[in-house]
Amino acid sequence: MRAWQVHRPQPDVAQALRRAEIPDPRPAPGELLVAVDACGVCRTDLHVAQGDLPAHRSPVVPGHEVVGHVVALGEGTTRHAVGDRVGVAWLRHTDGTCRYCRSGRENLCPASRYTGWDADGGYADLTCVPEDFAYALPDGYADAELAPLLCAGIIGFRALRRAALPPGGRLGIYGFGASAHLTAQVAIAQGATVHVLTRGAGARELAVELGAASAGAADAAPPEPLDGAILFAPAGELVPVALRALDRGGTLAVAGIHLSDVPSLNYQRELFQERDLRSVTSNTREDGRALLEFAAAHRLRVTTTPYPMAEADRALTDLAAGRVRGAAVLTPG
Q1: Could you give all domains of the chain from N- to C-terminal order, each with its CATH number?
Q2: What's the pTM value of the predicted model, to 2 decimals?
Q3: pLDDT at site 333
């Protein structure tokens, strides 16, 4: 089959990503073989290609926002049939027995493994997924619209929960890419007032189109104190900026898997008065199901920039350069 592989991570993603012909995967017991109909391009793919995340498998096929249809069943699968449309996301394995899994925190499982990092992902014609980690998908969305929901949507949904926003609260969103533009819509639908702080003029325009109450520069102060905030941009220098924007008792959730260094924090200005700073680590399958159920009940406007699968290197390069509006999505052809 045709696939893209990361052989040697490096800053130049066009060099890190190589086109290859590799053998078709075969589903192991309990797995589904899925033909890829669309694959979102996530910033985590960029971190894998550039080496911000240590290599877990080399070479590896990136991509973990996969919408496809089942073409073969591994031994012992029981819930799916050939032809079913399914989603393949970042989290693909947990041990199910550790104290984190037993307490509903499988995202913290020490034995967790991930699509496009520990196992080949969706920048290819075919991929495999454990049946227990495949998602049923809502109707009413095209394949390319669903793909970003499978990581950008899920992680944003968990980050919103981690931000502990009270009902009708004031939410600040720092950075406005694939995940943020979906999270903003979820928050607004839940009654929040959303203020977007981001560097790109085009992203600020999109934020206002989607219902944000304001949109300003990433390092600007929002027009009112915030009850909660989410940092999507992988820029550690924005952590103190966002903390200073919080009202008393507010919470900042950092949503990225990778973040540049955070400057030293001034306790009085940035943490005092019970401001909280939280990280977000992966997601649970419950997060995924909850986000997809929300998308079924509330029609989200998924803004995508399409690329042919044959131009995955260009898609990643554009993402690195900030030239993508909404979410980049690869489609075969």
Answers
A1: 2-141+302-331 (3.90.180.10), 154-279 (3.40.50.720)
A2: 0.95
A3: 75
